[in-house]
């Protein structure tokens, strides 16, 4: 029989509403950013994080899985998606519809404030390694730094010991993988190979509508999410021009010379 930890674990999963991965990104006419009047969904890496939290509960002693998102009113739909996958409750740090997207440091500070105000201590934070809209890949590391917690990034496998005191994480690195042992509490960021998220069943989607979502504002958390960076202009990359064929190596070398490309 597996020994139980001194208390059940609590998992927090930050999730982000992002432009759906299948949408072709376009720059808006003002060139201030991308066109956001398109389909949105949960950031795919965060979906993996929710799935992993649910799987951890299936194989270890987990008391609660709570989601948190920071964004406009429509972000509550992202929380409902995660609740339908198996999470227990959500926290929505609501921003005005017109508010600019917060930067990673602001998000990390808000998450730290959310963690510190929880009645039950958070043991594990699992989040995507990056969001597919800004690709910053910084929030998890910044949050670990602010809290002084262990961190394991780019996870492709996660195990927590039966005592609930240590996590063993296999992480993706260039050319292979690396195994880390981290004392709890810990911040884990998910990579693509960690799992394949489940589809929420219709009964679970209906149940998710009744699960609690706490509404907060940045002022409730004592944080300022105003961006400190300014985007001057956003443009699409130049269109690729067609290539050409050559008959032999001599012709290839001549073409390269014409283009001003010479051997080092």
Question: What report would you give on this structure?
Answer:
The protein is an alpha/beta fold. It has one domain (9-237): 3-Layer(aba) Sandwich (Rossmann fold). Helices cover 27% and strands 26% of the residues. A 9-stranded mixed sheet has the order 9-8-7-10-6-1-4-5-11, sandwiched between helices. The protein is globular.
Mean pLDDT over the full residue set = 90
Question: What's the oligomerization state?
Answer: single chain
**How would you write the strand order of the largest sheet?**
9-8-7-10-6-1-4-5-11
CATH topology: Rossmann fold
The string of secondary-structure elements, in order, is: EEEHEHEHEHEEEEHEHH
Global structural class: alpha/beta
Low-confidence stretches: none
CATH class: Alpha Beta
Q: Please tally the helical runs, counting DSSP H or I stretches of 4 or more residues.
A: 7
Number of strands: 11
CATH architecture: 3-Layer(aba) Sandwich
Descriptors:
single chain, 264 residues, alpha/beta, Rossmann fold, nine-stranded mixed sheet, two-stranded antiparallel ribbon, 27% helix, globular, electron transport
List the helices and strands and how they pair.
Elements: E1 9-14, E2 17-19, E3 40-42, H1 44-59, E4 62-71, H2 75-85, E5 89-94, H3 104-116, E6 124-128, H4 139-147, E7 150-160, E8 166-173, E9 176-183, E10 186-190, H5 202-208, E11 213-216, H6 218-221, H7 249-258
Helix pairs in contact: 2-5, 3-4
What is the compact description of this entry?
With 264 residues, the chain is of the alpha/beta class. The chain has helices at residues 44-59, 75-85, 104-116, 139-147, 202-208, 218-221, 249-258, and strands spanning 9-14, 17-19, 40-42, 62-71, 89-94, 124-128, 150-160, 166-173, 176-183, 186-190, 213-216.
